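Dear Dr. L.,

I hope this message finds you well. Following up on our conversation about the binding site, I have prepared a predicted three-dimensional model of the protein together with iron/sulfur cluster. For your records, I am including the exact sequence and ligand specification that went into the calculation, followed by the structure tokens. Please feel free to forward this to your student if that is useful.
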Amino acid sequence: MANTPSPSTDQLTPDRSAPWLEPRGLYVHVPFCAHHCGYCDFAVTVGQDHLIETYLEALALEIDRTEVTTPVDTIFIGGGTPTLLSPDQLGRLAGMIRRHFPTRPNLEFSIESTPESITADKVAVLADHGLNRFSLGVQSFQGHTLRVLERQHSGDQVTPAVEIIRRRVPNFSMDFIFGAPGQTITDWEHDLKRAIALGSSHISTYGLTYEKGTPLWKQRESGDVIALGETDELALYTMSHELLGSAGFEHYEISNFAKPDHRCQHNEKYWANEAYHGVGVGAVRYVGGRREHNKRNTKDYIRVVFSGESPTFQQEELSPFERARETLAVQLRRSDGVSRQAFLHQTGHSLKSIVQHRLAPMIEAGLVTDENECVSLTFAGKCVADGLVSKVVWG
Ligand code: SF4
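The resulting structure of the complex is given below.
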């Protein structure tokens, strides 16, 4: 192979035909939700279901205008709550995606969902279009946690939703939030055990963040809710690692756990810093090294797409060196870590030229390992990942 780096090389031209340049993944955003959860600051559209039909028409136009150079092997419909759409609308959405984007035989085709929006006919129409993975936003089974997060479903709605999904789509993931006000370690243990018992092949656990301006952030500012302390949060995170590990889940990314062969292949593209298409309001795409952000307001997005213009409102193209640093930052999130050889091949820069002088104290502190030509975070490193990654990468 002409481009094989030698271990002593510090710079080389990245492979021009690689998955970090040509998108092999597709993200489709559906912004509609029945209700705005108290902690959420995603691009969501609430109480405007009358816009769904027009939004689907705009999405069809954006999809038709998307240049496709190679088949995709992952499709992820996210939101919002995509399963708020009717079975007919979901069928049309999946159909327009499948018609425009050629796929590879091992396609992973996922959709985000909520327990209260699942019905058998929605699952059936999606499965008929090749959808083979559900990602269910459970967040908790506990009534008091769901109330503080202002979720619309109850813990009791989860099992029936899972039963409906599994009849057609056996592979499903569950999302949980830990660190909610009032959440105890017993609550968390109960949540994880129920998720395991329901047969989830993949579990995501996200630490609650108080995003400025959200209702939950305001409640914390006014003292109406008390945030959990760092020690309590760490105890919950450690429990996820231990309990899910002993149940056969691999802790393959800071917030993600998978049964063997059930990692989320779509999200793995983000953590590898590989290219992906992105369509819909608020969607991001990363194609040929350029990252583009679509407008975040649904009415603006529809207007611009119908007028024949691009819905992009912001774009950036990093220098090769900055891109290498960004690649390092996301790849450190993976338990697979950063392979020195693959990193050089992908970015054109050696890991050594970027961070070598910063690694030694972190290895000594037990936060990072550097073995077999691969750098990765230890569990202690994962516990302080945000600050640690920024220190490793940017100093
Ligand atoms: S369902 Fe999800 S996307 Fe919609 S408001 Fe709640 S957290 Fe946000």
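In brief: The chain has two domains: 25-272, 318-395.

With kind regards,
A. P.
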